[in-house]
Amino acid sequence: MAGPRCRAVLRAAAAAGACGLGAASLLRCPVLHRLARRAAAALMALAGPLLFRVGYSLYARTRLGYLFYKRQVKKARERYPRGHSVSRPLGFGVVKILPIPVLSNNYSYLVIDTGSGRAAVVDPSDPLAVQAAIEEEGVLLEAILCTHKHWDHSGGNAALRQQHGSCKVYGSALDAVPELTNPLTDKERVSVGCLSFEALATPGHTVGHMAYVLDAAPFGGPPCLFSGDLLFLAGCGRLFEGSPETMLASLDVAVGLGEDTLLWPGHEYALECLTFASLLELDNPALERKLLWATEQRQEKRSTCPSTIGEEKTYNPFLRTHRRELQEALGLTRRSGEPADAFRARVLKEVRRRKDLYKAT
After folding, report:
1. How does pLDDT run across 33-68, given as a tens digit for each residue?
2. How many CB atoms lie within 10 A of CB 136?
3. Annotated catalytic residue, options 84, 113, 148, 175
4. Which of the listed residues 54, 194, 224, 230 has the most CB atoms within 10 Å of its CB?
5. CB atoms < 10 A from the CB of 22, how many?
């Protein structure tokens, strides 16, 4: 059955035909001109999602995506020869986490067991930048932990595997990760030296998205979540291959890790995400403070990583779907008999819709 947009198109065409009008006459008739404008807008609204889906399929499933990624790498190396942000390593005990700014806003992470000199890298977008860090640290790369298949997270897998023959590539078998050698399922563990990572299935952004949690408790540190495109500072990934319900469940997994968990996201999106969040919650002191801090950081091109799950719960709208103030700001109310999580998924869907439109403008 035709929806309102399709009916607007049909009404304009029918009216023009009934009057025997061509395109020129249509534009001169005020009533038909308004109908034509509405019809054009309706067609664009219908075509937009379709074109987006086609573009995403080309990027994710064909060689065109890889060629686009290579162009991204080339442009980023020229524009940011030292990386898009100034980052600092963080250490506790024998653990050293080195954020590597790559492409125009991505982060790879070199995670080192300084006792044995063995290391894992999370999402090696640019193999040259990662290899430079490996050489500077003088470590042996044992593992690539890939959160998902998108080229801006997996594009360096092949080159690094070629340079480090014994290196294994971990990720989900559901996600067509390049060079995958060791497919993982939910809650499987990966050991690198004395470091232990737990893989968590977190679908939503892609069907096989995984996040990795470093257990730093033996070294006196908090859990460390390498979230890929699941969760950003004040944001979350787009729902390319999942429903709001799926993404909500995955975000709940992250929240369940504990408030002291350090969040190491796949992108430097903090300022954009915090600015968007401030448009939803106009009276949130924690959000105001974090936005001010992030603005100062980004003015100096300093990295905003890491934050904590506890912090994120105070200002990240994608983790605040249960909060009445956010629900009211969106104009949403829980329906009679609606399960709580179903309502939260509706809230998440609306926040994601608004964020997509905000980014587009």
Report:
1. 555 556 545 544 445 677 878 889 888 888 899 999
2. 10
3. 148
4. 230
5. 9
Own/partner pairs for 129-136, CB < 8 Å, 24+ apart? 129/83, 129/100, 129/101, 129/102, 130/100, 130/102, 130/156, 130/160, 131/159, 131/160, 131/163, 133/98, 133/100, 134/110
Tokens at 60, concatenated = 């994710």
Catalytic residue among 113, 152, 175, 209: 152
Q: What are phi and psi of 40, to 5 degrees?
A: -65, -45
Active site residue 205: yes
Catalytic residue among 123, 150, 175, 209: 150
Task: For residue 84, indicate whether it is catalytic.
Answer: no
Please tell me the total number of residues recorded for the chain in this structure: 361
pLDDT of residue 57: 87
Q: What is the per-residue DSSP string for 36-90?
A: HHHHHHHHHHHHHHHHHHHHHHHHHHSHHHHHHHHHHHHHHHHH-TT-SSB---E
**Superfamily in which the 90-360 domain is placed by CATH:** Ribonuclease Z/Hydroxyacylglutathione hydrolase-like (3.60.15.10)
Q: Would you call the peptide bond into 178 cis, given omega within 30 degrees of 0 as the criterion?
A: no
- How many whole angstroms separate alpha carbon 211 and alpha carbon 197? 10
Which sequence spans correspond to the domains of the chain? 4-48, 90-360
Q: Tell me if residue 202 falls in helix, strand or coil.
A: coil
Q: Give the integer Cα–Cα distance in Å for 108 and 99.
A: 6
Low-confidence ranges of the chain (pLDDT < 70): 1-48, 360-361
How many CB atoms lie under 10 A from the CB of residue 323?
17
Exposure string over 206-226, b if 16+ CB within 10 A, otherwise e: bbbbbbbbbbbeebebbbbbb
Annotated catalytic residue 33: no
Candidate list 229, 260, 283, 322, residue with the active-site label: 229
Distances (CA, A) of 323 to 263, 332, 340: 21, 11, 12
Q: Are 149 and 126 in contact (CB under 8 A)?
A: no
Nearest to 190 by CA among 146, 250, 227, 254: 146
CA angle 195-173-192, nearest 5°? 10
